[in-house]
């Protein structure tokens, strides 16, 4: 595993997040912010709706200004409302991170322009556009490319594209130190062999509304009568309840447990304790990879069909066995084929091999820190 880190300056980071999916964009931005803070960086996280942090990161405490303060042993994250401007006494930025193509708040542009007007010799912050995660080939070509700003109050400055990814030619993935420690602990005691049964004993379900959900539930009930579903809250819970309402009378009702909203760390532990994980979006896909268990990914569907090539590119990188690829395509509505039987040993081996490849990469936060030092 790449763990060597150069000496990094203590900097003020401003990270900007527009909430579309609480578990996705805010989940990624919170993990990024907390990871930076744990490495001694000062972080302000600007969010237009931070309510999900009440359960996602319950250690965050509201302060008198209406922001939230998250303390770590070596730093802190200050969560700021999107529309509340900085004050003259606030510390100037060293780094701007626009997450997933969001743009800076108007008041922030004004503040930055005024700050530079009062001190024209001050250096500009390093300005990054942190993009969506993908295994498609354009990611390696576009990673670290400049994007000159051609209009607006900050015309003439440069943004930099920073792409997370699965290869050494990308920005890597967010990976906390405890992940490496957990893997080393597992290796020292020896990992248990994958089950030989065709389906898992326990599945964690975190999904949108896959049409194949009922089929998957019935397949599990038929192949493994004692199968347990652990259903994460949100849209997947509603889809699961809908499937139960139309459950065939000749089949025993599935065993299940509805999970309440839980902190990110608790969700990560749930994935690590399951035999098969159904995950969705970006943040929980990465968590499934670090869990090292067999998993099925529901990609966010797009009207223009762009999710199809994106899913296939990921399955190519994953080196998914045929049954896992076919299951993914049916689960994501990209194939009319019935769901194939779960080959848990093969899927587990695939997940662990992918995890081993990822551990050879430098993690996302380490790469961000190095990139910013280079561009300052």
Description:
- This protein has 376 residues and is an alpha/beta fold.
- The chain is built from 13 helices and 14 strands.
- A 9-stranded mixed beta sheet has the order 3-4-5-2-1-6-7-9-8, with helices on one face. The protein has a 5-stranded parallel beta sheet with strand order 12-11-10-13-14, sandwiched between helices.
- Helix 8 packs across helix 9.
- It is elongated.
- It starts with 11 loop residues before the first strand and ends with a helix.
- The N terminus is likely disordered.
Summarize the structure.
With 376 residues, the protein is α/β, with parallel strands linked by helices. The chain contains 13 helices and 14 strands.
* Terminal residue distance: 27 Å
Instruction: List low-pLDDT spans.
Output: 1-5
Global mean pLDDT: 89
Series of H and E elements: EHEHEEEEHEHEEHEHEHEHEHEHHHH
Could you tell me the number of beta strands?
Answer: 14
Structural class: alpha/beta
Query: For the report, how would you describe the main beta sheet?
Result: 9 strands, mixed
What is Rg?
22 Å
Proportion of residues in β-strands: 15-25%
* Largest sheet strand order: 3-4-5-2-1-6-7-9-8
Helix content, binned percent? 25-40%
- Envelope shape: elongated
The helix count comes to 13
